[in-house]
Amino acid sequence: MITKSSYAISMKSGAGYNRRRFVKLAALGALAVPILKACGQKVAAMIVRLTGTRHVLGHRLWAKDFPKPTEKISIPYLIIGGGISGLSAARQLTQKGITDFLIMEMESHTGGNSSNGENKYSKYPLGAHYLPLPNPHDKELIRFLQESKIITGFDTNGLPVFDEEQLSFDPQERLYYRNTWQEDLIPRYGNTKAQDTQFAKFFAEMKRFREGRGADGKYWFDLPIRNASTDAEIKQLDTLTMKQWLDSNGFTDDSLQEYVDYCCRDDYGLGIAGVSAWAGVHYFAARKNGAYNKDSVLTWPEGNAHLASYLKEYTKDKVLLNHLAYDVKTERNGVTILAFDADKKQSVYIQAGKVIMATPQFVNQYLFDNRKPFTKKFTYAPWLLATLTLRDLPSDGSYPLCWDNVIYKGKGLGYIYDQQQTVNQLNDRIVITYYYSFSDVDTKKSRKELYNRNAEHWKEFVFTDLEKAHPGLREYCDEIQIHRLGHGMISPVPGFVTSNEKQQAAMPIDDKIYFAHSDLSGISVFEEAFHQGINAVNQLLHGSTVDT
């Protein structure tokens, strides 16, 4: 649900869109680094902050070196995990008339990868920062957006009407291509006729997938993905990489493959050589937004933390923050949970009637016996974000600063302008957030690199990439916050989405423990996490996953 923010595909092209969603916040330290001008004259110190999730506390699950419990809590329902899935489960319980529940979260806040930071100039996302317009048939998500006053009514065709101030403002996106900025993220200027032809054929094929339906009448691709058809033609796509599919279908142009690779890295962490063709096509085909006739998405300076804030209304006085569950077992009368209170440095014994595990599988494998054989099939891409506070943003003036700004063949995925949605555009500073996914398929290696490199290394990495389009950028930077995510999002590698392992991980235990997380879908997007929470509650109460 985990993702930056921009819809890597122009609505004008008829393609779908989707993007960055994941993250948590926990400050780990700060380092002031002096920056010198070329002449050697010292200027104001740049503040470099290094933040991330509480991975050190989480790693204690390996050893489970926790003290014996000194406190006991009894509760009918417990939700473990305070990301979007857990918060959505809390909402669903409440709407079912159940309020005697608690939600447990390892971090100092809920929201998961829909969290945010804030400085004196702007709020900014620490992960997911926008929501595409919902599929018109996604009634549950539309109802939530109504509750949140994001949808203000319906037009004569029955389509939602959105609050204009929560739709992304123009100009929306630009690409640094051939040493200048151009509108849109699809390379357009200076292309050959053959290049344009391949792009046109590719989007026509994506349109076929987007509109295609199976023998059961369901779309081939949909959100949530459990609503989609499972025709053999579509299942076959999960056996190939997106790179193999592109090559075998004649989509070999370098600029087209670079564009699709960018889209896959942006939504899944890994590029076309790492994700399945099913995932690559899903990016373009799952959203049915053409009916809206809008080139827009829903976004806010704080990103999807805005959405999380509405879900948090259902958890007031029901949250145990800084609590790490380290043992979960079913008993005859319910479930026993051992958790470590990181504030008090003591363990807590919890007796619950039923439990919803809104935690990723790389955590669950340490909480339950015999899960590692199938949870090892889950692949998580590391991510790095950097939020820069700038006195100015040097540019060539070819196309103005946009909400989403991408550098062609850059190491990262570009940056978003965090103040785009601010009505008052008279800002003393410019705040942008840069995104980088470690797209090497060896994610363990990437994870070690992420944590073994220091703040100075990542500062230079970010500036080197951004200065391809903004020479001298570092001299205008007051502060850079570098945010590390060791398990940023689930990556749908070939064979995973249709795997038995994914199905096994979602199976309830003894009709007492239920599972809800976007990694059980295979893609990390808000819609999947939102529906996972609803489905878990419905299954817990009714033995059904129907959204009601």
Structural summary, described in words:
This protein has 548 residues and is α/β, with parallel strands linked by helices. Helices cover 26% and strands 24% of the residues. It is built from 16 helices and 22 strands. It has helices at residues 55-58, 60-63, 84-95, 139-147, 193-211, 232-236, 242-248, 254-268, 277-285, 305-311, 361-364, 372-375, 443-452, 455-466, 500-506, 526-542; strands at 27-33, 46-52, 69-80, 101-104, 116-118, 123-125, 130-132, 151-154, 160-162, 173-177, 180-183, 297-299, 319-320, 323-331, 334-341, 346-357, 380-390, 404-407, 415-417, 430-437, 477-490, 513-515. It has a 9-stranded mixed β-sheet. Strands 3, 4, 13, 14, 15, 16 and 22 form a 7-stranded mixed β-sheet that branches. It has a two-stranded antiparallel ribbon with strand order 5-6. Helix 3 (84-95) links the parallel strand 3 (69-80) and strand 4. Helix 7 packs across helix 9 (277-285). The chain is globular and about 70 Å long.
How are the secondary structure elements laid out?
Layout lengths: L26 E7 L12 E7 L2 H4 L1 H4 L5 E12 L3 H12 L5 E4 L11 E3 L4 E3 L4 E3 L6 H9 L3 E4 L5 E3 L10 E5 L2 E4 L9 H19 L20 H5 L5 H7 L5 H15 L8 H9 L11 E3 L5 H7 L7 E2 L2 E9 L2 E8 L4 E12 L3 H4 L7 H4 L4 E11 L13 E4 L7 E3 L12 E8 L5 H10 L2 H12 L10 E14 L9 H7 L6 E3 L10 H17 L6
Parallel strand pairs: 2-21, 3-4, 3-16, 4-13, 10-18, 16-22
Antiparallel strand pairs: 1-2, 5-6, 7-12, 8-9, 10-11, 14-15, 15-16, 17-20, 17-21, 18-19, 19-20
Helix pairs in contact: 3-16, 5-9, 7-9
Quick one: how many beta strands?
22
Helix content: 25-40%
Through-space gap between termini: 22 Å
**Poorly predicted parts:** 5-43
Largest sheet data: 9 strands, mixed
Strand order of the largest sheet: 1-2-21-17-20-19-18-10-11
Number of distinct helices: 16
Shape: globular
